[in-house]
Amino acid sequence: MKKIEVLEELLKVGNGYLFTKDVVAQGISKTYLNVFVKKKGLERVAFGVYMDSNELSDELYLLYLKNPKAIFSCETALCHMV
Known about the structure:
- This protein is α+β, with helices and mostly antiparallel strands.
- A hairpin with a 2-residue loop joins strand 2 and strand 3.
């Protein structure tokens, strides 16, 4: 697979989110990632997290990415169970 195909697949698997750690794990440089991000018009939504501009941003998902040990309770948890 070519680098661009790998990045497209990572974006697809990530449901519109692309993670720098996943790109580096595939042996693709951050420089190439930067070129891909500009070419595709991806938006940086958090440190090491890029989002397809065609996707809707999920603030709670981004909060979870920043703090994986975060616990959502009450109505917030109920809302995301559906």
